[in-house]
């Protein structure tokens, strides 16, 4: 097995034991396969997104229970606007339904909502739902549930570089003083410090691509790909992915004692 969980039946995975000392602090997920899940059931694509939203509820609580500090979910990319209008409209309304029904559970579980992306380009109702959820959970100090909404990593890096260039232009920052930390601080993950970078990036549905997600931040992330489509992803699948993560030897370019 090479970073790829090919079990289709998540129930098979529930005998996993995780090392509680090595739970990844930041888990990021590319939630893929909603459309194919729906198609296999002769349902419209949006039925897959609706079921995918229910999966978000289950996985947010499961990750929080496991002790994850930040769960970042790729909910809508800057490229997803290319989809048919009906689907885009449905995806824009999902955060409204999600937060309408789920904020009390998030508060009960001490989960704080965060959002990264070009939120000001979202429809007004979506922006309001997001702002309200952030406000209603602001005192929670457990896991951060971080939605990437209208997010794209190249655009994020360009925005960050522009902000840095402006400081250079005004003389506030010398070019020689720019370090990797300067860019960390200019990116949309800056408020997640010290957990800016995912320890593990999971992608569901068998696709093995990064799709413009957290390109800078995943430099040393472990990548886990599973065949399971997002609507079928369960707490047991999450545990299996984290067990795969825990089996890796993270060296960050260096050597370990074993070598
Ligand atoms: C990718 O599957 C999924 C998306 C583009 C949308 C993801 C959104 C959710 C899971 C719901 C988000 C919930 C909240 C609360 C914001 P796809 O449509 O590309 O699937 P396919 O590759 O099988 O067609």
Could you describe the largest sheet, including whether it forms a barrel?
A: 7 strands, parallel
Spatial separation of the terminal alpha carbons: 21 Å
* Fraction in beta strands: 5-15%
Percent helix: 25-40%
Order of strands across the widest beta sheet?
A: 1-7-6-2-3-5-4
What binds here, in terms of ligands, is:
farnesyl diphosphate
Name the structural class. Answer: alpha/beta
Number of DSSP E strands: 7
For the CA atoms, what is the radius of gyration? Answer: 19 Å
Gross morphology:
globular
Instruction: Please report the number of helical segments.
Output: 7
Give the uncertain stretches in residue-range form: 6-11
Mean pLDDT: 94
What does this structure look like?
- This protein has 259 residues and is of the alpha/beta class.
- Among the domains are: 76-93 and 119-137 and 146-151, no CATH class; 152-191.
- It has seven helices and seven strands.
- It has helices spanning 34-40, 45-66, 85-108, 124-136, 153-169, 180-186, 235-246; strands spanning 4-5, 26-30, 70-77, 112-116, 144-151, 200-203, 222-226.
- It has a seven-stranded parallel β-sheet, with helices on both faces.
- Helix 2 (45-66) runs parallel beside helix 3.
- The two termini are 21 Å apart.
- Bound molecules: farnesyl diphosphate.
- Farnesyl diphosphate is lined by residues 31-36, 49, 52-53, 56, 75, 80, 91, 94-95, 98, 147, 205, 230.
């Amino acid at each position: 097995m090479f970073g790829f969980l090919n079990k289709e039946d998540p129930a098979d995975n529930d005998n996993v034991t995780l090392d509680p000392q090595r739970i990844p602090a930041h888990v990021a997920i590319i939630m893929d396969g909603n459309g194919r899940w729906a198609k296999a059931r002769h349902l419209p694509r949006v039925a897959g997104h609706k079921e995918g939203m229910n999966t978000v509820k289950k996985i947010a609580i499961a990750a929080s229970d496991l002790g994850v500090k930040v769960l970042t979910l790729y909910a809508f990319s800057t490229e997803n606007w290319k989809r048919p209008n009906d689907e885009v409209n449905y995806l824009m309304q999902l955060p409204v339904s999600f937060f309408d029904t789920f904020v009390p559970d998030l508060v009960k579980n001490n989960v704080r909502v965060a959002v990264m992306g070009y939120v000001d380009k979202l429809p007004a109702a979506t922006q309001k739902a997001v702002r309200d959820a952030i406000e209603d959970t602001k005192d929670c100090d457990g896991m951060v549930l971080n939605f990437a909404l209208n997010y794209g990593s190249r655009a994020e890096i360009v925005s960050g570089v522009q902000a840095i260039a402006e400081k250079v232009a005004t003389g506030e920052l010398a070019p020689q003083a720019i370090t990797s930390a300067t860019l960390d601080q200019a990116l949309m993950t800056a408020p997640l410090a010290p957990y800016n970078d995912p320890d593990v990036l999971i992608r569901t549905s068998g696709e093995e691509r990064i799709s413009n997600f957290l390109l800078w931040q995943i430099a040393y992330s472990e990548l886990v790909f599973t065949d399971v489509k997002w609507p079928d992803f369960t707490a047991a699948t999450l545990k299996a992915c984290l067990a795969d993560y825990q089996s890796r030897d993270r060296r960050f370019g260096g050597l370990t004692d074993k070598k």
